[in-house]
């Protein structure tokens, strides 16, 4: 069954209130960006994949590199399409939502969820509540209690003050108040830098090591992105020097970068992002490399509901993914806001687990009326 057309949409969906993400300091997010790809086959099947806000760059190579790569291909040719997108990525920012859309179409053609075509290891994955803003201690304690009441057994908070001593003091107080009831991980967003309207204070190796040791003494589960994501030597030295689990890898891309991270033993926990780091096929290949090194694999998911759905299918296809990120920081970023492009949001069950969608392909339905209403680009 051949692909006959492929379309690109960039929708900018207004947020009810600004979201002050730690990775974009001083530049509150006022819109949910959805870069949606639609793959159409000769039998009329429509597959969808989506990333965040890379559509403007993708649009620049759409007619020259994306359409010629896909149109006329069998929907089963995921390996060839992935190889072509690796080359296309040299011209535009991470075009992996295109590959996810092909997998969605393939799953609908086969009548199977994607994860079952990839191995079908687990139908449900433990979710951890992943916050994205800096909040006062009292608010974070209230959030933690809400998460506990909703069934979560683990949460992740941010360490992103210019003075890390403030972060350590806040985290210590949060742990003291709720740490016996919920496991806590920390993300410091040092793996990549988008300074927004102000410059972020960068950590050096000694600072990162001191913070790791302090967090270990508090019982923190892991520290995410303590150094720049391409500082392979620094990450390897840090991991070898601390007892705290080190996590990262969300914006590394393709096989060779993850091979280097694994070869140097940079992380305990590898957080490939399916729609940012190579698509479903490369994510599944990286997962196999991680498994061979007896490390933990868990997808990064801070995009939106379509990205979470793709990550869930990769997570469901392997045995060494014990938990998955569930982006959730109410009231400004709850599941209804995150998943507005879907007709039905992805929710966590009362026992803290989230089901891998069971419908064919991604198993989720895109609200195309909403996409068309807020589309600022169609290609």
Task: Report what the structure shows.
The protein has 379 residues and is an alpha/beta fold. The chain folds into two domains: 3-111 and 367-378, Enolase-like, domain 1; 116-355, Alpha-Beta Barrel (TIM Barrel). It is built from 13 helices and 13 strands. The protein has helices at residues 55-70, 78-88, 96-110, 114-118, 137-150, 164-178, 205-218, 232-241, 254-263, 279-292, 305-316, 335-338, 368-374, and strands at residues 3-19, 29-41, 46-51, 124-130, 154-158, 183-187, 222-224, 245-248, 269-270, 296-297, 323-327, 353-355, 375-378. Strands 4, 5, 6, 7, 8, 9, 10, 11 and 12 form a nine-stranded mixed β-sheet that branches. Strands 3-2-1-13 form a four-stranded antiparallel β-sheet. Strand 7, helix 8 (232-241) and strand 8 (245-248) form a beta-alpha-beta unit. Helix 6 packs parallel to helix 7 and helix 9 (254-263) packs parallel to helix 10 (279-292). The chain is globular and about 60 Å long. The model has no long low-confidence stretch (mean pLDDT 95).
Which architecture of the largest domain per CATH? Alpha-Beta Barrel
Number of strands: 13
Percent strand: 15-25%
Q: Radius of gyration, Cα only, in angstroms?
A: 20 Å
- SSE class: alpha/beta
Average pLDDT across residues? 95
CATH homologous group name of the largest domain = Enolase-like C-terminal domain
How would the global form be characterised?
Answer: globular
CATH class of the largest domain: Alpha Beta
Helix content: 25-40%
CATH topology of the largest domain: TIM Barrel
Number of domains: 2
Task: Outline the biggest β-sheet.
Answer: 9 strands, mixed
Distance between the termini: 23 Å
Number of helices: 13
Encode the helix/strand succession as letters: EEEHHHHEHEHEHEHEHEHEHEHEHE
């Amino acid at each position: 069954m051949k692909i006959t057309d492929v379309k690109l949409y960039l929708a900018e969906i207004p947020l009810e209130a600004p979201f002050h993400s730690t990775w974009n300091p001083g530049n509150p997010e006022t819109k949910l960006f959805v870069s949606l790809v639609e793959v159409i086959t000769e039998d009329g099947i429509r597959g969808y994949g989506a990333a965040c806000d890379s559509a403007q760059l993708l649009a620049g190579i759409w007619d020259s590199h994306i359409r010629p790569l896909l149109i006329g291909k069998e929907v089963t040719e995921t390996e060839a399409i992935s190889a072509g997108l690796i080359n296309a990525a040299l011209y535009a920012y991470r075009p992996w939502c295109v590959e996810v859309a092909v997998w969605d179409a393939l799953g609908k053609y086969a009548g199977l969820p994607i994860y079952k075509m990839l191995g079908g290891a687990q139908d449900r994955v433990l979710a951890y509540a992943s916050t994205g803003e800096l909040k006062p201690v009292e608010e974070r304690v209230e959030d933690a209690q809400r998460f506990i009441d909703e069934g979560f057994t683990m949460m992740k908070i941010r360490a992103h003050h210019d003075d890390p001593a403030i972060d350590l003091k806040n985290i210590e107080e949060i742990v003291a108040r709720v740490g016996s009831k919920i496991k806590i991980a920390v993300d410091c967003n040092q793996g990549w830098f988008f300074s927004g309207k102000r410059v972020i204070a960068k950590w050096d190796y000694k600072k990162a090591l001191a913070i790791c040791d302090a967090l270990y003494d508090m019982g923190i589960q892991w520290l995410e992105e303590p150094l720049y994501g391409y500082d392979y030597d620094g990450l390897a030295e840090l991991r070898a020097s601390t007892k705290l689990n080190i996590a990262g890898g969300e914006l590394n891309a393709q096989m060779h970068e993850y091979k280097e991270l694994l070869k140097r033993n940079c992380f305990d926990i590898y957080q490939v992002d399916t729609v940012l780091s190579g698509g479903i096929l490369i994510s599944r290949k990286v997962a196999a490399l991680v498994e061979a090194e007896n490390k933990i694999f868990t997808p990064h998911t801070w995009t939106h509901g379509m990205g979470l759905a793709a990550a869930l299918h990769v997570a469901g296809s392997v045995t060494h993914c014990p938990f998955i990120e569930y982006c959730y920081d109410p009231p400004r970023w709850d599941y209804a806001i995150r998943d507005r492009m879907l007709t039905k949001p992805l929710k966590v069950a009362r026992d803290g687990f989230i089901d891998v969608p069971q419908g064919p392909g991604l198993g989720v339905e895109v609200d195309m009326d909403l996409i068309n209403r807020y589309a600022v680009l169609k290609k």
